[in-house]
Write the structure tokens for this entry.
Amino acid sequence: MKRKTFVQLRAIALATLFIFAMMTTAFATLDLDATSEIASGVFLEQKAENDSSGNAQRILTAQFKPDGQNTYIKAVYGGTLGVLSTVGDYMSYVKDTGANAVLAINGDKNSDYSVETRINEPVGLMISGGRVICATKDACTAIGFSANGTAVIGEAKVSVSMAYDGDTLSIHSINRLRSNTSDIFLYTSDYGTSVRTESNGTEVVLQITSGSLAVGGVLEATVVSVEESTKNTSIGSNQIVLTTRSSGSNGKALKGMKAGETVRISVSTASGGVNWSEAVEAMGVAGYLVKNGAVSSSSGTADARTCIGVKADGTVVFTVIDGKQSGYATGLGLKGAGEYMAQLGCTDAVYMAGGKESTMSVIGSDGSVITANKPSSGEQLRVVNALVLVAPEVVPVAPDTGTPVPQDTPSLAPTGTDTPADPTGTDDPNTTPTEPSAGVGAQIGKAILYGLVVALGIAIIFTGGLILISRINAAKRKKARAMRKRNSPYAPMPDTRSQRQSTSQAVADAYDDDDDDDEYDEDDYDDYDEDDDDDVPPSHNPSSSGKRYI
């Protein structure tokens, strides 16, 4: 085979490799650095790049402005506080109620208590549908949303008290495991079917007659029974249970309660805290990232993060940062996460459970719930609760109005970690369930197209290799045939010496095997090996099955 032909084939193959690499790179950028309007006014950006320290980062950021009616947030748990579910399952539950759930992030982690009777309790305060699901007199930080959608972040410090027979007693906590103290603890059916106390005490069963456990509200109940030296009392329908250690003044007060008498229980915001009476949804958080515009943490240990921020104009930001996945996502420390949220424009920002629990679920183009990020555990873990965003379907934009412009997002900050239900029907009755929007789920179609491009590139390279090998083998066969013909006893002999010399020279010129002209080096063929598919983006699997809601 002539060197010119070989060089041409080599150039074609190299050009094919170059085009293939450019196409795969373009599709990877399209999939990993895309902004989608997954619901009307809800923009989700997927960012994949290296930070200023050269570490790979993958970040999902959703921005929206809740109005309390069409776009709002629900704090969801597993029906009872002992039931854990995945973020995807919480989102599916809200969808099943008829609301157009489009996005969800994790709340508190699974604490994995070693004592079987203990449950995984939410951090601090939790309000769902206006009802207090969990609370304690100890101060904590929480994020809440009012009926008009306004978000508030601040200290959650509530006071729970009971009035009985002219006396007023303080209640330490609502739906939290009773510690070995003389404080009074209150339990509702949100906690489970029993109070799960591990040591004997005095436990009083009351039947609710009016009101509910809401901040700023009053609940009235009638005493059903008083049990001494008992534990793990059952909680019936529309009942509450008060329990304390038998010794001490509170134990004596509960022992003195009589069946049929009325108890009034009130919940209020303690002095110095945010007024949580306006919050219809609220959830305790692990801590601050940004407070009054200033980054509030110096921790630099990189890990996956789940963050919530609020801008001055009321825009809410949900951010999930993948981490601890070598070569894919390093993650950020609390300081780095705070700097990122501050660059987004958040005046206040907090973080939820991070690490393996960090998860974001979104609505797919076919209406299914899909995992948007890549949890470091390889799958969605079951968590105590989640925040679910409900928003209307994307409204098509008329050609002359232009396309909505998403919020700006900054470049990644340096790495820098520590990781510290069934809701009542409060959905706006005027909100009509709609078909889920197309959005991030459309990335699946892009992934399929990307796969086709990969397959086509491989086919082109493979075909080029076959053509190259075929041409080389054909040249070798042609040369062999000529040599056989030259050495055949039936070949006509030249008549004269000059003719013999002329013929010999012609044959030598025709089949010259000079290495300079027809050299074929095995190493040259190696240049056309198929390239590894390093740029294929990871797949996002739907959330795993979870426990059913009660």
User: Anything to note?
Assistant: Residues 443-486 form the longest helix (44 residues). The radius of gyration is 35 Å. DSSP finds eight helices and 25 strands in the chain.
